[in-house]
User: Fold this.
Amino acid sequence: MSDLGANGQRVESRDVVRTIEGGVAWIVLNRPDAGNAMTAAMRDQISSWLDEASADLAVRVVVITAAGDKAFCTGADLRGGRAEARPRPAGAPDNAVGDGARTIRLGWQRLVSSVLDCEKPVIAGVNGTAAGGGMHLALACDLVVAAEEARFIEVFVRRGIAPDAGGAWLLTRLVGIQKAKELFFFGDNVPAAEAYRIGLVNRIVPRSELRTVLEELAGRLAEGPTKAIGVAKWLTNRALDVDRATALADEALAQELVTHTEDSREGIDSFVERRPAEFKGW
Assistant:
């Protein structure tokens, strides 16, 4: 792995690559021959990068996409083996109560939460199949841009397991209870056009234009008032989980905090002076 510094930084491994340039952190899943299936190391690395992005003033937007033409992410790498077990006392079971739930909580749930909790906007560039946890990774992002050939699959039922990676929480909020049940129960392929129709994605583009559109959207967000956008993300993510009084209290607090940012002052000054705003991100 190499690290070439702050802006223009490229951090690279065989399976996942991060490049930071022009305020945009590009995270690229890089296992096209394996359907960009996520290893535990990849999952944990991406979670850490998203956590870092919140505090990094050089990062104003994150894009998550993948190499190749066939897959965005087909979920967990089921062929990659399990992590080495910790030593256990004599007579202890191989799987104690709590082990499974902890694995889920610290694995894919952490990854999805790191997207939702990132203080910067996160865009998914879905170049191909997004299945299982890979679908939920995309849905956790603030904006989803999909290639025309992309498809989304709630693949869990095909494996005889329940949805994880925050899927029930995410999907139900996007498409409603009845449609979410249909997608979970049958596990059918959802083509990009249908995904757009039911509200899973924001835009569909020809695959050849995906990178260009991602650069355009990320560039606009990178020039925006980063703190204000981050607070808007926080308020929106909370909106369906709290009552009206809490939502309004959150809004009042958020407005007070944001009005003390330099970008807020710049927004007002540029309006008064009738010139384009030049936001710095703080």
Residues 32 and 68 are 5 Å apart (CA to CA). The chain has two domains: 9-222, 226-272.
